[in-house]
Amino acid sequence: MAVTIKDVAKKAGVSPSTVSRVLSNHPRISKETSIKVKNIMNELGYHSNMMARSLVSNKTYTLGMILPRPAEELFQNHFFAENIRGITTQAARNGYDVLMTAGANDSDEMEAITRLVLGRRVDGIILLQSRKHDPIITFLREHDFPFVLIGRYEEDPNVLCVDNDNIQAAFDATSHLISQGHTRIGFVSGPPSLSVSQDRLEGYRQALAEHQLQMKSEWIVEGEFLQESGYRAMSFFMSLPERPTALVIIDDVVSFGVMRGLTELGYSVPEDLSIIGFNNISLTELSTPPLSSIDIGIYQLGYMASQMLIKRIQGETQPQPRTIVPHRLMIRESSLHYKAKRSGV
Amino acid sequence: MAVTIKDVAKKAGVSPSTVSRVLSNHPRISKETSIKVKNIMNELGYHSNMMARSLVSNKTYTLGMILPRPAEELFQNHFFAENIRGITTQAARNGYDVLMTAGANDSDEMEAITRLVLGRRVDGIILLQSRKHDPIITFLREHDFPFVLIGRYEEDPNVLCVDNDNIQAAFDATSHLISQGHTRIGFVSGPPSLSVSQDRLEGYRQALAEHQLQMKSEWIVEGEFLQESGYRAMSFFMSLPERPTALVIIDDVVSFGVMRGLTELGYSVPEDLSIIGFNNISLTELSTPPLSSIDIGIYQLGYMASQMLIKRIQGETQPQPRTIVPHRLMIRESSLHYKAKRSGV
DNA sequence: ACGGGTTGTGCAAACGGTTTACCAACTGAA
DNA sequence: TTCAGTTGGTAAACCGTTTGCACAACCCGT
């Protein structure tokens, strides 16, 4: 049905091997033959069959990933979309495609990975998340299969991964609030088991320490990456005899919960409470007031992961296993003008 | 390196063909042999090579799609993420994976499609968008290659597609406002060239007509799917001598522009102006007040598209080429209690 | 005991490429 | 003239599966 290398060969009066060599720019093919064959290829509309090519070359030019299961977190959709855009764009630039597969549960997922790896469907894998002692990572390491993790894997420092410097990011966010004149700053954290929570808390600590500011344990609360957590944290803070005047908040969605609660209680942002969140989701610009946030470069995370993986596949060794994607402060209304009001302007 | 069908055959003392038949549950393989071979497969950790299998069977069990290029519209990320989740989940249920590829420009994209189709990398394609007289669609039809479009294609009624009933959706949104006691209802539209804009406007018209309500052309404004468009529309409406008391707005992001503008001018939603948007993006719940919206079932759109495509690939004929995904009214604060305030409650 | 239908399995030819080994013809230097 | 070294190309093996055809062994009714 489809036109094969043999059809081209026959029409050009050469052998299939010659056509193959033309395709791969083999040095020992004459200019003349090459041009002749290429013309015939165009004429016949030849396009090489990737399956056949993969079979013999053992390369698929495909990166695999598994679709993260729908998480409760609102942030997920944004992260997922931006991330995949970064991954796919970079892959495309290097001639790779991205294969996505889904699993309804853990064993499904494991089976999917097995299928991709052992079935030789992909050349490498990008993981969008990991658990402690992740069996998927164990599997991939055992088979010495190329993969890159977005995030970080405590158990094994040799795992290739790309991540943010969350300590520094929180440090910067906190410092920004300090620079706005705040001295009483609280922190709304996520689940304490997550390394993001730990790292951001640490950055917050360091910034306060550097400026010799008071750090009260009651100004640190933990929650989920949900709006409700923000709402609850806000209620708590506002009930304190000595309130913070600004908050560093683990995630934008949580920040929205805080903002909403404040509005309901008749307080205003940033005058009564200045806030800054993390992740810079698109809604930050739309809220009233617009929310200051740390942009963690989600697209870039995907982009770099893709790049690292392709290098790894092609045998380049990485100088170090971890790549850090820089973050950016996106300062908006929610964390500005505090001083202005205080000083009566 | 990897364990092949031959290794299994050798160890089991049978021929490769027998192993292959065990794999495909061929009826004429004895229970005995089947079990023996299966044991050996487990023992050796055998997994069949998809490339080889595809080569001979001419099936890849893969659906292809091209990554939409970053659009200006905020809504895109949410749509993309939900959509792909639907597509991939349904695909996985049927044993298919999804291959994503990206193109930086039109010709890139065309080349990518060619690669997937002619290179026999996928069994079918899902298109997330289309242009008028889309060359990609022309190409696919010419090659009689299975594909499904999310959206609709005016030029060819035979194209398989899945879409919403936007006329009905806008009808329902408008009717809802009417049921809340509004009689002066405006419409904020998108680019008039898009069929979404046309259809939603039509639904709005029909609802007003059914209730014999006044339809003033100055109560209909066009814009982009951007916040600014909403802001501008709002300014315009509020400057009119005879203002609408409620708005049907083509998109949630636009609605946020309206809400923000109203807040800035000291008006309040829904008391001064009730609004309802489309698409039900996640922020709708987070805004103050929460925004009423029409949920167009984005996940479902992807899910159905995937299903249609797989059926088409497997040779099932569809009763009709278009599938309509039902929409749902998500009523929130922004379009409620209008009457209540009017009557002084 | 014999032919005809099942059953269970092996052989070998695809599928569409790549790649190794090999060869013929042409250089050019000794 | 001869021999070694290029240059341009062919033939055949191979990648891992599937599958049509052949065939032996059995089962059953006559």
Task: Give a verbal description of the structure.
Chains A, B: This is LacI family transcriptional regulator. Chains A, B: Residues 4-47 form the HTH cro/C1-type domain. The structure is a homodimer of 345-residue chains. Helices cover 45% and strands 14% of the residues of chain A. Chain A has 345 residues and is of the alpha/beta class. Chain A folds into three domains: 5-48, 434 Repressor (Amino-terminal Domain) (Orthogonal Bundle), CATH 1.10.260; 62-164 and 298-326, Rossmann fold; 166-296 and 329-342, Response regulator (Rossmann fold, 3-Layer(aba) Sandwich). In chain A, the strands form two sheets. The first copy, chain A, has a six-stranded parallel sheet with strand order 2-1-3-4-5-11. Chain A has a six-stranded mixed sheet with strand order 7-6-8-9-10-12, sandwiched between helices. In chain A, α5 links the parallel β1 and β2. At the A-B interface, α4, α5, β2, α6 and α11 of A face α4, α5, β2, α6 and α11 of B. β2 (97-101) of chain A pairs antiparallel with β2 (97-101) of chain B. Chain B binds a DNA duplex (30 and 30 nucleotides) through residues 2, 4-6, 14-21, 23-24, 27-30, 33, 48-49, 51-58, 120.
Name the chain pair with the biggest interface and residue counts per chain. A-B, 55 and 55 residues
Question: What is the count of structural domains of chain A?
Answer: 3
* H/I helix tally of chain A: 13
CATH topology of the largest domain in chain A: Rossmann fold
**SSE succession of chain A:** HHHHEHEHEHEEHEHEHEHEEHEEH
Oligomer: homodimer
The coarse silhouette of chain A is elongated
Main pleated-sheet profile of chain A: 6 strands, parallel
CATH homologous superfamily annotation of the largest domain in chain A: Response regulator
The Rg value of chain A, from CA coordinates, equals 26 Å
Structural class of chain A: alpha/beta
**Alpha carbon gap, first and last residue of chain A:** 79 Å
**Average pLDDT figure of chain A:** 92
Number of strands of chain A: 12
How much of the sequence of chain A is in beta strands? 5-15%
Protein name (chains A, B): LacI family transcriptional regulator
Keywords (chains A, B): DNA-binding, Transcription, Transcription regulation
InterPro entries (chains A, B): Cro/C1-type_HTH, HTH_LacI, LacI/GalR-like_sensor, Lambda_DNA-bd_dom_sf, Peripla_BP_I
Domain HTH cro/C1-type (chains A, B): 4-47
